[in-house]
Amino acid sequence: MAPLLVLRCCSVEFLKTFSRANVFLMRGASIFCAAQTQLPVHSQRGSTLSVQKMFLFSGKCTADTRLDGKTAIVTGSNTGIGKCTANELAKRGARVIMACRSLEKAETAADDIRTSLKDVKDAGEVVIRQLDLSSLKSVRKCAQEILDNESAIHLLINNAGVMMCPRQLTEDGYELQFATNHLGHYLFTLLLLPRIIKSAPARIINLSSLAHTWGDGSMHFEDINLEKGYSATGAYGRSKLANILFTTELAKRLQGANITNVNTYAVHPGVVDTELSRHFDSIIPGTAWLYQRVGGLFIKSPLQGAQTTLYCALDKKCERETGLYYADCKVKSTARRAKNPETAKELWTQSWKLVGLDENYNPFQPA
């Protein structure tokens, strides 16, 4: 048996010399790996070292909850964490709505899931809907299609996102990462919320990240499109901070409306082998390759990355918890910037205006 391999990274700043990128910043992270056998080589795309037998620090959802008769929505579920999440929920009997930007990719992924579950007793149905979170028009259309066709929504997993892309504005005129990772999910959630409340008990899970510590910690309400200065990592960090602030504020407002059986969760999945790294080379050429090859020692598989999402969706231990932040299937503390109630309140107010919700709309009224 190989000896215990301990890799302790008290302040990991992978590729620190590339200060402009800060791609692998993992402040305060301690990574413990145990090698019991020779490292297996595996990759979602043929390049990454998988250390599935080494991730002692990677939490695992052990809940045996069935989801028969339940409806779940997973955004961005044609690949990576979202696809693994959709597969597991369908395996447990849920009707899973895969809300994805590309219908072609979504259908291919849905077929993969159906094939993998063909011999699974009482597996649930998998359906697809088109959802481009960078387009508020698309968000409204998808939400309405779901409301027209689904009498209940028990799980909403806001999984989709973009990461560290060059500065772009959406068709609505908003910075792409903030628009896709926060504004799109904010609007999608609030449009579906009356049906979710009607279907309670229900859970809403927002995928955030340890990257909420990146950047200067400001939401830049006075410069929402970051025209005065743009950093791909800082913009991504802002969007992930927004995910946490939205989670906590939504929990607070649900409780204020005396709705106690709809809970919210913010999740850090870990550093995962997904397609989110596709924009790395636009920051510094070669970093995507380095992330996949050298970073493989620290990267989880999509299935491992889905575990905390599944824990928050399924486990009874957290069914009475709300508004908290989770990593490796445990409640974790966020950075101080994510604990400011005034910032969370202002983000809600500004987001309401940015997505164009009517001032008389009440998302807390069951429908």
From TrEMBL:
InterPro entries: NAD(P)-bd_dom_sf (IPR036291), SDR_fam (IPR002347)
Keywords: Oxidoreductase
Pfam families linked: adh_short
Gene3D superfamilies: NAD(P)-binding Rossmann-like Domain (3.40.50.720)
Ubl conjugation listed as a keyword: no
GO molecular function: oxidoreductase activity
Family: Belongs to the short-chain dehydrogenases/reductases (SDR) family.
Protein name: Retinol dehydrogenase 12 isoform X1
Species assigned in the record: Diaphorina citri
Gene name, Swiss-Prot/TrEMBL: LOC103508728
